[in-house]
Every structure is written in C-alpha cells, then in structure tokens.
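Sample A.
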Amino acid sequence: IALQQQGKHAEAVDYLQRWVKVAPKDCDAQINLGNSLLNLGRGAEAATAYAAALAIRPTAPDVLLLKAMAEQQTGNMQQAEQSVRHMLAIHPASPEGLFTLGTILSAQGRIDESIQVYREALRYRPTMVEPMVNLASLLQNRRQREEAISLYKEVLRLQPGMPEALLNLSTMEYEDGADSEQTRQRFLQVLERLPDHGETLNNLANVHMNLNQLDEAETYVRRRLAIPPESPSAHGTAAALFMLDGQWEEGWQHFEWRWLRDELPVPLRDFGKPEWRGEDIRDKTILIHHEQGLG
C-alpha cells in the first residue's frame, strides 16, 4: 500500500502477487493488486484480480465497477457493460456507475443511450464534472451547440481551467466569431496545463494564421508535428500555412495527408493507373479529375 501511495505500482504488484499466493482469500489484497495493475494499463490481469475479489464478495459494488473499468481498458466493452450493469442493479443511483456506463456505451457508438445515461448521472449528482463534460462533447458533435456551450461553462464554474472544457468552449466560441485574442489566451491556458496537447497547438496555429501572424503560426505547427500521433488535421493546417507562406514543396507534402481525413469532400478514387509523381509524360496521356473543385 505504501508503494501504491508513492505511485510505484510495478513494485507494489510484485509484493501483492506474492502475498495473494499465500493468502488467496484476502479480498482487500486482490483489490489492491487489481488497482495497481489497472494503473499500469494491464487491464486483463486487473480484471482477473477483481474477479478473485468478487468470488469472496460477490455483490461489492465498488469492485464490480473497477472490474468494468479494467474490462473497458482491454476493449472488452460487452463484458464491461455487463459488469457495470450488475453494479447498477445493486446501486441504481450511483453516479460513478452511470458515468462509467456512459463511457462504455459511447465507445460502442451508442450515442443516444450514452447521452441518456450521462443525464441520469447528473440527475443524481448535478455537480459531477466528468459526465457533464462528456455530455457536452457528445452534444457538440451533434451540433446541439447552445446546450453544449452551457454545459462547458458550468464545468468551468465548478472546475476552473479544466483543459477539455476550456479547449472545446474556446473552439466553439471562436467558430461563432469570438475575439481572436481572447480565444488565443484561452488556448494558452490549456497549454499551461498540457504543454503537448496536440489539438490546442493546432488551434493556436490556426488563430495566428487567421491573424496573418505566420511566424507564430509556424512555431505552433512545428510543435504539433513533432508530437505523436500523426494527425491529418495538423498536416492540413501545416499545408495551408506553408502554401500561404510560399513554402510550396513542404506545403504539398503535408497536403497529401488530406486523404486520411474523416470527412473527405470527394472520396479517394482508384482509376487502376499509377498516380503521376512528376515524371516525364510527353509520350503518355494524363487523366485530370475533379477532387475539391473545378478551379
């Protein structure tokens, strides 16, 4: 337990595994073992430890919830949903259980159900920011902007400076025509807490680009490109910036990432012939086709 409190979960696992071999019926030890494994991202092993604890305390709601979280970490959403619903059958008014169920449903693309469950969690605990920000994000994606903005503002009232709420609210207000400098300052607040937050770096690049501050925009673009994972959106910003600045070769290289965007204006088509890469085509025919316009 002392090692867990120090964040030394790998060492804690070693001691706890040795202990549960000696005392397999020690429910608290099994739970602690599961907690450290969960912190280490070893969800499958954590779920096994929680299952051992549940064999001793079959209706322990906190353990059922932890087991669901471990199963969710492994991507076993069906089993995770079963575990959390078992927990909610015992404690139907648990905001934590409802929040976890909401995240599991959302991960399966069951957005209507997820929205309903997040609302239910907030009915039992109106000041719980986790379901509030997740609900706002789902509503934002559904373009229910007014309610999403209201929820983000409430999150920031309850937890000032929460990065996700600050970022999403600032982005929405900027899209609605908010002052560029005010938006820039809010994005900088996010970077103070999360210096390598890719979406924020990309947004700052766009703000500076719209202000025609190309040197500042390039600084943020290059910071974003240096951070994994690669993002078609970030490469799209880089393409626009470098072309705007006359850096054509680098701009076109980034522009190739457009084909990996989620929403393409025109789908990538295969004509059964190789793409022209700039080689001599004096004795060949080239097909020029529509992609993003006819200009």
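Sample B.
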Amino acid sequence: KVAVTTGITTTIGTGFLNPSGVAVDSIGNVYVADTGKHRIAKIVGTTVSVLAGDAAGTSGLVDHATGTSARFFNPSGIAVNAAGTLAYVADTSNHVIRRIDLSGTVGVTTIAGTVVSGVGTPGTANGTPGTAGSFTSPYALALNAAGTLLFVADRGNHSIRQVDLSSANAVSLFAGTSGTPGSTESPALFRNPEGIAIDAGGVLYVADSGNATIRKITSAGGVTTLAGQAGFLSVTDGLSTSARFQEPFGIAVHSSGVIYVADASSQNIRRLAVATAPTVTTPVSTPTGNTVTSG
C-alpha cells in the first residue's frame, strides 16, 4: 500500500504469486486476483484469507456455491461494487467473467463468456445472455458507479467490451474492433489493453499496453489518446503525447481526476494530471526500504 500524500509504502499482505489485480471496497477491505495461484484473496487489515478458488492453487473452471470449491485459471482483473456485496473477476485463461457473492458462502458464477464442455472458449462474439458472448484473455475490469455496467479490457481481442449487468449480462463491443489491433482514434483501435479505470462521470481510461499509450473513452464511446505515442517506448515525462511509456499496465483514477499508471517495464509509477493539457510525471520510482523515493 502506498500513501499518495506521503509516498510511504507498507506491506499489507504476503504469500501471493504474480498478483495482477486489486480492488478495495468502501470500508477498506482489499481483494486480490492472485493470478499465479488461480484464486481470489481478501485482505482485512494485514490478515490474508482465500476468498474463492483453491488454497493449494489448483486451476480449473468450476462454479460453486462455496467459494473455495470454485476454480479459476489465471484470474487477472477484479472489481467490487459500491455496496461491497459483489465482486467481478476477469478469469483470463478461462476467457470468461465470473461473479462472486461476497455474502454467505461466497458463491461463484460465470456470468459472461462461452464455456463448452467445461472449458472456456475464446472468441469475439457479442450476445445475450452473457454466456452467449465470448472474450479472448479478458484482463482488467472497471465497474460504473451504479454497478450496472462492467467494462472489460479484452486483451486478446484488442478491444473494450461491455457487460450490462442489468440486462441478462449482455456482452457488447464498447470501443475498438474485436480482433484487430491498431492505434488510431477513428476508427478506434487498441493493441493488447491491460488496464482500465472509470471515473465518477463514467469516463474510461485505458492502459493501452501494446501501444504504450493512455487512452480516454467517453461515455458515448469516443476514443482519444491522452498521453504517449504509439510505437515510441521510453520513460519521458512531459505534456500529453510528448510523454513516453514503456509498458503501461495498471491504471487508477483518483476522485480529483489525477491518473496513476503502473509502467511495468520501466518499473515506475507515473502520474497523469488531466485538468488542462495532460501532463505526465514520474513521482514514484525505485523503493528504498519502506519509503518510495521521488523520481
């Protein structure tokens, strides 16, 4: 955990293997997509427990009324609703989206994506109900404030998909062209998007990893490039598209509108201020002990 105001970092949980996604509920409970161990963990304070999936790390695709009897395969993205009653998981190597009921026995259900004979099947199909649609390596999730729309960074399909949780989990294409990589704004194309975040107004921000750019998607689906330039990789702070990234991976947006990006290959945390012209800085870099130094 990094305190943004002080730059102090503390360890709140250990024992994970390549964790890829984190979500926090309204009372501070932390949910972790423990990718390499094929499970979902919960952290309360500094106490880690297995919420769903096998404690021993067995992979699979199993829905179950008891969370620890369910199985996942490299879950990567996770989102929690405002009430803290439901979590959604991008089960990447199963090519499906799962829902976890956070009450009672923590039941796990596949709500979107195609499963044939117990095996998740990749694809580009839209459909209603959600299990008539398909994904290819869905990687990250963002849930709108109302808890009705789930947005998916569909990495293998180079697109952003939408799951309408209020309408039979219907799957549709929100931005990009499924199966077609690229970097243009019109038509909107992405290349292996791996991070997605949403602000209070419903605007999406995407870590377009394969293009090394940060993209913005309006609620109407309009796509622009906020920062970085496709195909130009480095660690350069600066204004808008004059800034450079190596591999933007994770992304989060603060209520103030400031965007934070985990620039994976450069091992930096980057900050993007978008109040006027987007400006990228590198305020946090190599940690020393428990203190994150300023870059």
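B remarks: Residues 210 and 277 are 23 Å apart (CA to CA). The first strand starts at residue 21 and ends at 24.
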